[in-house]
């Protein structure tokens, strides 16, 4: 029986819901613990949580979790933690400084108390008898993102989750290609690598270019400059702050997520706001509109977000006027076009200037590596095996084709295990040991539980057709047909249909 | 009271559901009669039909419909006709040859009998005392698309719906810029123009380029070459047939819509299939896989489409094998990414080669004019007023900005009437006369009717939360609490929740 086992607890061919297990004898090392997002086929479901039943089973059998390492601070890598922790024995958690702060924020929001140990780059941490790891700095759309070099008795695993190779990042901390090149001589057994944007043939553009585009839209804004972006994108926020400083606009943050993230980043010196530039959101009206820059949460046009409430005139603080400008510094997440463009269209109906990447492409740059960056990293690291992660099945398949074509890997050397597969590594080889049937937990309203396929299918049917209930009294065994009542919801509007009934 | 009235019956700021009214005294001239597509906020709704209640009201008042002119054969311009005709007195309908055939097909499918008069280009048709019109040839993603020059007592209206300026169209019939240039000297009162792709700064690429991309994917296909595309895209189909001919693959069509459209196009000599190239879909297995090219409906991964059934192994004729290749010669319609990429991902899971525009962009070119093409057409025509149509509110607003910037129109000369607005033209000026509250009819299952906002809101609520019915018997005025029954659907799975109940 092979000694090192690997399993993606969040499933295979998924972008979000990241959670990975490395297992050696009775030691289980976890990487990331993120939420997933439901699609339109899961009505009423808020978020998805990775299936930890395999962990629970192994704990029953005497195994233990030796640690959980966070790669970076995005919710699809950290935010399932508070849902999972109460069901598991305690274990240490590790992250870079900002990631630890973000993860602790999520854990604290759930009224739990667990701290995350801050680990420095290039500093090996011995987690247990069989596992140790080291962080390497990489560039991504949240600062302090790391790749993880995991040393195991079977060899080195390079856990290369979300990244891009940005030559000119906003904080000047480029990807640690020096250490990666060194590792290229250390016989890495298997490299996991972010394949999400394998379809893109051109090297991704630097995050720095968004700063220029943002400043360009700021220059000719007559009223308030309102910008929305991913609330964890501290480098984007830094560039907005810098542009605002140059153009004498005070900065305020509006929206719980962005306010929290900014607070954490400022405390860690990862975001610098010049003295006197920051104003409280409740005081914006004390300044002339042309002297403020508002960074507002809601870049996807989410219901209930600060931006959407402002757009519909329902925000207590932020009123949009015709001389203001709203800038979307984010693309629509695929599948969310309706909300995203709905928000933009509503602004246009109200004659408010709005600028978004479809008009000015540099307003957003992806945080993920394109095909040549992925190839570059693999080429430097020269692992024996390579495994695409963080992409859907079409990305995994294309990755396989490209790595084979461009880097001369053989098909067997590129691992694309199916959903739930446990891969065992031993003596330099690998095989699939078992395939579990993973079933993510669902967070639905205030509860967490197992809303299975039958319930979801019923919900879809109800949502498509509505219901009609026909109530026939039955008195002492006899149906009273003279007294039938019909109740309907979502079928036809009862008042209109009175005569049908 | 102004003499010429204009109203978009399908609403403003919409891409689909095209239906326009021009009214002079008691004469009402219609342009197009297309369906709209519901979004995820309208669960269970199949299609939307323009609101014709204003027409019915005007008919009551003594007005009459003098004609309906179809601009081209897309469903969002013709397919509402069979739903609308039964509610209206007879009137003549006009279209180009292919458009007439497509419209008659839709009408016949609904078991109605109405013919559409075929009108040639540059040939004035006198529709009534006050209206006459002329067709001009333009390029678009269905052959035989026309712009409509409508002569009214108040001046010329140029109805410039969906088009692009393709310098090298597949059938060599370029847009009639000569006649458009002539019209530039005839004081056109108002030009309506397709603004959908105003966000694109570069001239659209010619449809001819897709043929090269398709052939490139065909060349190295080992098994069956399976391609899916918009089923009315006869020029795209022609290019597939041409490539198949060059590479000795017999051609078969699979899917009702594509089979019908091909039949109509072949009869009108708008699609040419060399003798001996066409095979019946039931005979594909009589040929070696590397000798067939299958053109299959379902380019959006629609449920029930031939392609999707084949992908899931449920098609009676088309079985996909690992050496086959599936080519998507269409982009995802915004909002439909889940179905579209879901189909592609499923193919990838089954190890079938799939190529799509995200990998090979030239596999699809839009049929809509980019910004410079829109400006070119307006610049040639030099209308007094210009009105963007066929786009959402963000497109209309950007159009206004661009036309003002680049062609020196004043804000008042660019019309973006709100939803339901009746615009009156008189003595070379215009004003908004009234704003109607338009309410599209809904086709839902087999019926057509007015499923209002309450019903849709109930459906959304049911779909999000499910239902629980609590039945408490009441016998002779007394509730029998010992005998409560609980029924649920979509709430929790009853078997799992037995103990809760």
Description of the structure:
The structure is a homodimer of 501-residue chains. Chain A contains 13 helices and 26 strands. With 501 residues, chain A is of the alpha/beta class. Chain A has an 8-stranded mixed β-sheet. The longest helix of chain A has 15 residues, at 393-407. Chain A is globular. In chain A, 51% of the residues are buried. Mean pLDDT of chain A is 92; it is low at 493-501. Chains A and B meet through helix 10, helix 12 and helix 13 of A and helix 10, helix 12 and helix 13 of B.
Summary keywords:
disordered C terminus; homodimer; six-stranded mixed sheet; 26 strands; 501 residues
Q: Largest contact between protein chains?
A: A-B, 55 and 54 residues
Helix content of chain A: 25-40%
**Low-pLDDT residue spans of chain A:** 493-501
Mean pLDDT of chain A: 92
Q: How far do the termini of chain A sit from each other?
A: 68 Å
- Major sheet description of chain A: 8 strands, mixed
